UniProtKB/TrEMBL annotation:
Protein name as annotated: CAP domain-containing protein
Gene3D superfamilies in alphabetical order: CAP
Pfam families in the cross-refs: CAP
Entry-linked PANTHER family: SCP DOMAIN-CONTAINING PROTEIN
InterPro entries: CAP_dom, CAP_sf
Keywords: Signal
CDD domains documented for this protein: CAP_bacterial
Entry superkingdom: Bacteria
Residues spanning the signal sequence: 1-23
Amino acid sequence: MNNRMKIALTATAVMLLASPVISVGVTSPSNVQTAQAATADQVPAIQSAILNELNNLRAQNGLSPVTEVSPLVNLAANRASHLSAMGALDHHAGYNYKDGAPYTAVAGENIGYWYNSSITDPTEIAKQIITNLYDDNGIATFGHRKNMLNPYFTHVGIGVTINPSNGYIFYTQEFGTMSNEITANVNAVRNYSAYTGAVGLSSEFPTKFDPSISSSSTNTNTSSNSVYPGATKINAIITPVRLTTLYTSPAGKKSNRSIAGNTSWYTDQVFIDGQGNHWYRVSTSEWAEVNDGNLQNL
């Protein structure tokens, strides 16, 4: 029997050191389980799988991956342990974004717990957790989805703790960005902050997620850290003036996606082809040719 239970989720976002914007879910288990599927020795694998699936989701939506850093990893571990010891979620009462310093200019937290006595594979556990967060059933603001797909989050910490008494997996996602990474894009960050706390979804930020697509298949052309031959590493925001088709490589095959005009995208590499066209990498495996847009170095 499949005992899949999306028990509880809560999300909060702190933008530019503003007051938290909170969306709240259920705070305590409705049915206590006694059989334990996942075990404590699987925690590192589950954490790694959650990070992979999170970046899989971001890649499917044309976003750069978030990378783990020690301050946010430590914050995530402490938060997950605290929630597991409580046996419930705390509506972010124990969350202090300053504990993730220096990644505090833009910060946010997703927390939840999950249980399924029939699933033990870390990758499948992670897929279901990310799917639950993405679906955000019953959460009017869709705050978890918006946090995971925030284009201005650059770093993350993943925390996982398994409650030994009932087998619930308590997990946390601690997002953060340093101030020098958003200096040139403050207004866009503030706009997304308002969107994170607003009820519903917006056509301005269309999203999709197919958990059947493996995380490896979203990175077939470049890894998150590799540099495309002939490209130059940059740290910038590119804003095309018109609808722009994405390609799997500079002047390569068209992907099945485009980015809208006058929308801002983080880019970490630029490639100039033989005709002088500028190609910017906007996800791990997608490039946009933008010759008349606005480039803001971070």
